[in-house]
Input
Amino acid sequence: MTLLLHEQFLKRAIQKAAESVSKGGFPAGAIVVKDNKIIGEGVSIGNMLNDPTSHGEMASIRDACQNLKTSDISGATLYASMKPCVMCFGAAMWSGVSEIVYACDMKRVSLEYYGGHYITEDISAQLLRPITLTHVPELEEESLTIVRQWELSLK
Output
């Protein structure tokens, strides 16, 4: 897929992050794309739902699976405003996602947002079907702006 198409879909994931914040959630959003079509979208409102697993990535994978009436979305790409945590990475693996494209890298935000430090690429390398991780730094500041605004709102 071209960088331009990646950026187009990633901008939608970043919009979902802004939507998440507007709903009182965490500043992360995600979409799932297959055959160049959005098949799932999600926001990070687990705090509102009393569900610690309801991250944007998890919600977008659930939405995609429900929309396609399957638990196997092999070949799909997950676009995330922030690099997914290990839980969301695991869900991507179990659902068959082949690539994760993200804007904001873990190193740019608090380790609290990830439950600690780990290298997702090292985890991926150990999988039977490794997931390609693609960072799009051109959109990192756009995603980080939403994170920083959310952080300021907490003070």
Q: What stands out?
A: The beta strands are 26-34, 37-44, 77-82, 99-104, 132-135. The mean pLDDT is 95.
